């Protein structure tokens, strides 16, 4: 007896029904829309053909074939191509029909993922501030004593010993000064007054572009893709320049090999986003600023920690650039998002517009 699945075409969620080998036997019209592929073509493919990274889904598929659960729900990021990633909630259900043992339902959950990510970033930003303040004060208090002791030691040393040992006391003093500078940078965004004025975001972008071109005159192409209709908004222009510059500078450093080859690309793009939720508040309009590079991508081991203070993907980096950028953007009630893979890293700054 042939089972009809035509009723599943009425569902708004994508449904795939597979045979024992993972070949797609049925796909509803919602699946056709979600996967941007006709039902006829989908029915000629397997899960391995449809997705570039089906490993986690296939593992659950095998469990479903063995009836190890009634149904299982999981959040997945399924790649259709290098530039097309679907963030979905998958529900995998075993069926009693041996010819079609597994039903997979896919719900796109981009908005929920963004809300969850934004909540994590806000929590992280609060934790960063507390950590930075505590760490900076714990370092600062004994630092003055160490530097003062080294200076007193120089004064107490006899002339003969001073010539021999001054090199060491100067190392202590210079390292104490370096740490003091680091502490000041950690504390600066939390104590510098927020100077509010009218901000034209393209003046900010052009300032960053000129600074980057001065530092990297050869090998780096900086493209502008501006929406000149974006209105001015109230904000701290210098903080926003610093935020965009930190991100652009990090991108240029990641592009070092491509700069040597002469094919490094940095794109600064501005758009208006509509009906955006930021910090749990719905905004009709928001600045949508992208800093995009064609570098190697963010190392996976720091991808989820890159906004933490003192976390850097390169040797000798301070690990403060993205932390400060996030702090400054948060002071404008905005967020920074990031999508990164080999050949494309896109930092997105969202700030409410009037």
UniProtKB/TrEMBL annotation:
Gene designation per UniProt: glnL
Function: Member of the two-component regulatory system NtrB/NtrC, which controls expression of the nitrogen-regulated (ntr) genes in response to nitrogen limitation. Under conditions of nitrogen limitation, NtrB autophosphorylates and transfers the phosphoryl group to NtrC. In the presence of nitrogen, acts as a phosphatase that dephosphorylates and inactivates NtrC.
InterPro entries reported in the protein's UniProt record: HATPase_C_sf, HATPase_dom, His_kinase_dom, HisK_dim/P_dom, HisK_dim/P_sf, PAS, PAS-like_dom_sf, PAS_fold
Identification of the protein by name: Sensory histidine kinase/phosphatase NtrB
Keywords: ATP-binding, Hydrolase, Kinase, Nitrogen fixation, Nucleotide-binding, Phosphoprotein, Transferase, Two-component regulatory system
Catalysed reaction, written as an equation: ATP + protein L-histidine = ADP + protein N-phospho-L-histidine
CDD domains membership: HisKA, PAS
E.C. no: 2.7.13.3
Pfam families noted in UniProt: HATPase_c, HisKA, PAS
């Amino acid at each position: 007896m042939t089972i009809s699945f035509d009723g599943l075409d009425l569902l708004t969620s994508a449904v795939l029904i597979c045979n024992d080998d993972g070949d797609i036997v049925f796909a509803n019209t919602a699946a056709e829309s979600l996967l941007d592929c006709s039902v006829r073509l989908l029915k000629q493919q397997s899960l391995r053909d449809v997705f570039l990274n089906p490993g986690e889904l296939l593992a659950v598929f095998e469990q479903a074939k063995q009836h190890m659960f009634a149904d299982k729900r999981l959040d997945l990021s399924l790649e259709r191509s290098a530039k097309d990633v679907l963030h979905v909630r998958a529900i995998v259900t075993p069926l009693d029909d041996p010819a079609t043992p597994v039903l997979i339902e896919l719900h796109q959950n981009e908005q929920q993922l963004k809300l969850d990510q934004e909540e994590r970033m806000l929590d992280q930003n609060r934790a960063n501030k507390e950590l930075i303040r505590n760490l900076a004060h714990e370092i600062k208090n004994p630092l003055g004593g160490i530097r003062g002791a080294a200076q007193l030691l120089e004064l107490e040393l006899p002339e003969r010993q001073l010539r021999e040992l001054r090199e060491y006391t100067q190392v202590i003093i210079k390292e104490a000064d370096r740490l003091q500078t680091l502490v000041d940078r950690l504390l600066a965004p939390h104590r510098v007054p927020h100077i509010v004025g009218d901000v034209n975001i393209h003046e900010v972008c052009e300032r960053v572009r000129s600074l980057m071109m001065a530092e990297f005159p050869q090998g780096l192409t900086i493209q502008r893709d501006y929406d000149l209709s974006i209105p001015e908004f109230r904000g701290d222009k210098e903080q926003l320049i610093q935020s965009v510059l930190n991100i652009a500078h990090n991108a240029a450093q990641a592009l070092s090999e491509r700069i040597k080859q002469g094919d490094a690309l940095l794109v600064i793009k501005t758009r208006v986003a509509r009906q955006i939720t930021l910090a749990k508040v719905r905004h009709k309009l928001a600045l949508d600023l992208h800093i995009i590079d064609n570098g190697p991508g963010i190392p996976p081991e720091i991808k989820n920690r890159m906004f933490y203070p003192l976390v850097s993907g390169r040797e000798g980096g301070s690990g403060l650039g993205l932390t400060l950028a996030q702090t400054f953007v948060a002071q404008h009630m905005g967020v920074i998002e990031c999508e990164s893979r080999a050949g494309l890293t896109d930092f997105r700054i969202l700030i409410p517009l009037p």
